[in-house]
Design goal:
The protein is an alpha+beta fold. The protein has one domain: MTH938-like (Hypothetical Protein Mth938, Chain: A). 21% of the residues lie in helices and 33% in strands. The chain has three helices and nine strands. Strands 1-6-5-9-7-8 form a six-stranded mixed β-sheet, sandwiched between helices. Strand 3 and strand 4 form a beta hairpin. The radius of gyration is 13 Å and the shape is globular. It comes from Hyphomicrobium nitrativorans NL23. It holds the Pfam family DUF498. This is Membrane protein. InterPro entries: MTH938-like_sf (IPR036748), NDUFAF3/AAMDC (IPR007523).
Length: 124
């Protein structure tokens, strides 16, 4: 089941922290997926809770994306093996960084008009 979109278009991340994000004049508590179709709530709350099934909405869009940015929380962490393999299998580049760096990078690439998506784990 696909989560409900909070905003039906891609917009920059205005702020992050306190367990959530602010974007498009809205706020969301928890992790988010930033897809070309909009910004969606996302279940994983830590890198340990992430698996390839959680990335399925991104994997389904692989042919339309240049790559995906994974924000791993307050610190950089290695993506789980099954996530790396799932991305490789569909030819989707995966760039992993802490959530703050991921949000900033997402904003820059979005402003450049790049075909990107981001999976951002919320930080406190």
């Amino acid at each position: 089941m696909r989560p409900r979109a909070y905003l039906p278009r891609q917009v920059p991340i205005e702020a992050y922290g306190n367990g959530g994000f602010r974007f498009g004049g809205m706020s969301h508590r928890g992790s988010i997926l930033c897809l070309p179709s909009g910004i969606w709530g996302w279940a994983p709350s830590s890198i340990g809770a992430l698996d390839s099934a959680a990335l399925q909405p991104l994997l389904d869009l692989a042919s339309d994306l240049s790559f995906v940015i994974l924000g791993t929380g307050s610190t950089l962490a290695r993506a789980p093996r099954d996530v790396r393999i799932a991305c490789e299998e569909v030819g989707l580049g995966l760039d992993v960084m802490d959530t703050g760096a991921a949000a900033r990078t997402y904003n820059i690439l979005l402003a450049e008009g790049r075909a990107i998506a981001a999976a951002l784990i919320a930080v406190e």
